[in-house]
Specification:
2 domains; alpha/beta; binds pyridoxal-5'-phosphate; about 400 residues; Aspartate Aminotransferase, domain 1; 15 helices; Aspartate Aminotransferase, domain 2
């Protein structure tokens, strides 16, 4: 069982706010804060390059920590400045041509879909959306029926930005593997709130961010690249960190996934992300999932009982993201009023998941995303405040 008192004592932010915005940015734990600040202090004291040399083992160790978190090897991990960049590295390295097909999910994230549209404009490839099943999740059987020789990429979001839905990422991975189609998984909202294992998922590429449920610092994320794909994949852009200029007309790429990185990055944030991975692993991802999902499930039930509230989460399996609308009060106004009372939540606009939002005619939504360090009392306080804000 998670020691709630201990994890809250480790999380300074819990002293000041009721933080129910872990899908936006989770509260950092003290070890994460120490890792980031400690390295910045060292850079200030002895110099940035010298701090790198002094802490090199720990900096390399951050890759091991993230690899451990998702069941990968160190050489399969690259650190990025956010999940979007990590995802774009993998996506824009795909060799897509006219007539090639990208298959994606209905609840796809806006940044990803915009990239598909760009790619379609540049190359003439096409984008096909896999139908959802009756629960609202991406339907693996529908995917299976769509597969033909033209499908050159399956790219889906595991947990969308706009709700509790969990797409069947591993079932989709099994289909991608069976047909040897590259599979790019956006796991941005999954990492840190549920166990993630790239072997079980069957993905070739997986992107995530540090700041959300993983509780790392802002401005950091990572990409996983399956080792078999490393034999061929070439980043769309390379620098002298990703490759070595070995002769006037020749370069050689690094053997590992870090070929996607560039020379300069924030090592303090890398250390923070590594510390966040260690922290989550120490608590245990099964325990984290059980508590966070349990809090969200209870929250959904209580929300449904509030006059004027419609819970908007879909899918047979639901995570720690809860979304709802109110029939009279706009989501933005609810979020602002909550913030004034010391409660953090966020709002989700239809344009962040346009296909899903259009299909379900979704309005602006309030997104409430508890984590394992939230207490039952905090959820009750939030509900009481919401009742007050929305009272006619
Ligand atoms: C599903 C999903 N993918 C990707 C991202 C982008 O992550 P980042 O802001 O770290 O680039 C988000 C952020 O909200 C997201 O919800």
């Amino acid at each position: 069982m998670i020691d709630l008192e201990a994890v809250r004592a480790d999380t300074p932010g819990t002293q000041h706010r009721i933080h129910l915005n872990n899908a936006g940015a989770g509260l950092m734990s003290q070890p994460v804060i120490d890792a980031v600040k400690g390295h910045l202090d060292l850079e200030a004291e002895i110099g940035g390059y010298e701090a790198k040399a002094s802490e090199n083992d720990r900096i390399e160790g951050a890759y091991d920590s993230v690899a451990r978190l998702i069941g990968a090897e160190r050489k399969e991990i690259a650190f990025a400045e956010n999940a979007t960049v990590a995802w774009q590295w993998a996506f824009f390295a795909q060799d897509l041509k006219e007539g090639d097909r990208i298959l994606t999910a209905e609840a796809e994230y806006a940044a990803n879909y915009i990239a598909y549209l760009q790619m379609a404009k540049r190359t003439g490839c096409t984008i096909d959306v896999i139908a959802s099943d009756a629960s609202g999740a991406t339907d693996p059987q529908a995917l299976e029926r769509m597969i033909d020789g033209g499908v050159k990429l399956i790219a889906i979001t595991w947990i969308p930005t706009n709700g509790g839905l969990m797409n069947p990422a591993a079932e989709i991975g099994a289909i991608a593997r069976a047909h040897d189609i590259p599979y790019l998984l956006d796991a941005c909202q999954a990492v840190g709130q549920t166990p993630v294992n790239v072997e079980a998922l069957g993905c070739d590429y997986l992107s995530a961010t540090a700041r959300k449920f993983l509780r790392g610092p802002r401005g950091c994320g990572f990409l996983y690249v399956r080792r078999e794909r490393l034999k061929h994949i070439e980043p769309y852009m390379l620098d002298m960190f990703g490759a070595t200029w070995v002769a006037p007309e020749q370069y050689e790429m690094r053997a590992d996934a870090r070929r996607f990185e560039s020379w300069e990055s924030s090592l303090a944030l890398h250390l923070g992300m590594g510390a966040a991975a260690d922290y989550a692993l120490n608590i245990g991802l099964d325990q984290i999932r059980d508590r966070a999902f349990g809090l969200a499930a209870a929250l959904r039930q209580s929300l449904a009982e509030i006059q004027g509230v419609t819970v908007r989460d879909i899918g047979a399996e639901q995570c720690a993201i809860t979304t709802f609308s109110h029939d009279r009060v706009d989501a933005g106004d609810i979020v602002s009023a909550l913030r004034e009372s010391g409660i953090n939540a966020s709002a989700s606009r239809p344009s962040s998941t346009l296909l899903d939002a259009s299909a379900r005619n979704l309005p602006h939504l309030v997104r409430v995303s508890p984590h394992y360090y939230n207490s039952e009392d905090e959820i009750e306080t939030f509900l009481a405040e919401l009742r007050r804000i929305t009272a006619a």
